[in-house]
């Protein structure tokens, strides 16, 4: 593969291939680099929207259309998972925040939680599920359906819960989300048409590496101020970090329990997807015009998002092995997370 390319591209391609082979270890390492090198965050923050656009393009570009159609022919599980992540989660978050009085005590934190709840799952969720040995196709199909709905559901919940807290109207938020998703889908479609699905599949490893580089750009841009925030106010920063971990694992646990009747392995895959919210899409839609507390929470959510797949992989693989032994799912290849 490398020998057929000009020498100019051989070294970058080899490096991206190596990076793509690192799996969840590279994803976890991103947060350390982002926090340890604050100037990198200042340099990359203006490119958050572009990074999100590229991540969306990569994910849409790699959609397995045959697997997508196969799951859509059995829509009950996909429909219920989509309804939960697009309607159930933001409703639960909004009502809990109101009941706890968070809206009055910390409007910036309330805004962060609502944007998190309103967001669609991360576009990287299917890749992470595959790295962990879970049903990536189920995650992918639910991701596609929920992402298609999020411009409408986000606009609805922004109207219900946020009022004038955003710098743009709920309708404008929905239209911006729709525009970003439509543009990235169009770009991905053109790439698939130009190069073909076979070429994309053959170059999976360097594409994985490029995806990790773009994740690094996003994480650095969002997390560039974490070290200075920790020094300036360690109690608040640690408290917000604890909340980020609590929200992540609450969504994972509640979702897994809610869908346990479809099998623990599938339920865990859906739980992982639901807990991995695409906050970058919300940052892009709002152009980053958010309070400092909201930015801090978004930054600290990167810790559970990047660490959890690495930490939870042994559990995921035990559940998959148990399901295969029981004949619930067919054995499938997994990507190494060396």
Automatic annotation (TrEMBL):
List the transmembrane segments.
Answer: 26-45, 76-98, 110-131, 138-161, 173-195, 207-224, 236-259, 279-300
Asked if the Swiss-Prot or TrEMBL record annotates the protein with the keyword Aminoacyl-tRNA synthetase, the reply is no
Keywords from UniProt, A to Z, are: Membrane, Transmembrane, Transmembrane helix
Superkingdom of the source species: Bacteria
Record carries keyword Lipid metabolism = no
Q: What is this protein called?
A: Na+-dependent transporter
Q: Which organism is it from?
A: Bradyrhizobium hipponense
């Amino acid at each position: 593969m490398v020998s057929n390319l000009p020498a100019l591209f051989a070294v970058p391609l080899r490096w991206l291939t190596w990076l793509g082979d690192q799996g969840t270890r590279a994803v976890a390492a991103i947060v350390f680099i982002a926090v340890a090198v604050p100037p990198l965050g200042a340099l990359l923050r203006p490119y958050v929207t572009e990074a999100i656009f590229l991540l969306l393009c990569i994910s849409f570009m790699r959609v397995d259309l045959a697997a997508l159609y196969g799951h859509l022919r059995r829509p009950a599980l996909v429909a219920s998972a989509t309804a939960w992540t697009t309607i159930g989660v933001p409703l639960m978050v909004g009502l809990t925040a109101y009941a706890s009085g968070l809206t009055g005590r910390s409007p910036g934190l309330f805004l962060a939680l609502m944007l998190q709840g309103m967001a669609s799952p991360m576009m990287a969720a299917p890749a992470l599920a595959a790295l962990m040995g879970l049903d990536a196709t189920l995650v992918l199909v639910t991701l596609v359906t929920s992402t298609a709905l999020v411009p409408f559901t986000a606009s609805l919940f922004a109207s219900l819960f946020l009022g004038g807290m955003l710098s743009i109207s709920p309708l404008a938020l929905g239209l911006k989300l729709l525009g970003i998703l439509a543009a990235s889908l169009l770009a991905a479609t053109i790439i698939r048409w130009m190069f073909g699905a076979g070429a994309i599949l053959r170059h999976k490893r360097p594409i994985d590496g490029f995806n990790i580089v773009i994740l690094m750009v996003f994480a650095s841009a969002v997390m560039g101020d974490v070290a200075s925030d920790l020094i300036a106010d360690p109690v608040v920063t640690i408290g917000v970090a604890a909340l980020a971990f609590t929200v992540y694992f609450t969504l994972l646990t509640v979702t897994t329990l809610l869908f346990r009747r479809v099998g623990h392995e599938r339920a865990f895959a859906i739980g992982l997807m639901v807990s991995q919210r695409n906050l970058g899409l919300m940052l892009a839609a709002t152009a980053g015009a958010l309070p400092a507390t909201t930015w801090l929470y978004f930054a600290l959510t990167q810790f559970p998002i990047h660490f959890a797949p690495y930490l939870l992989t042994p559990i995921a693989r035990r559940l998959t092995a148990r399901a295969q032994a029981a004949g619930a799912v067919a054995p499938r290849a997994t990507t190494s997370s060396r």
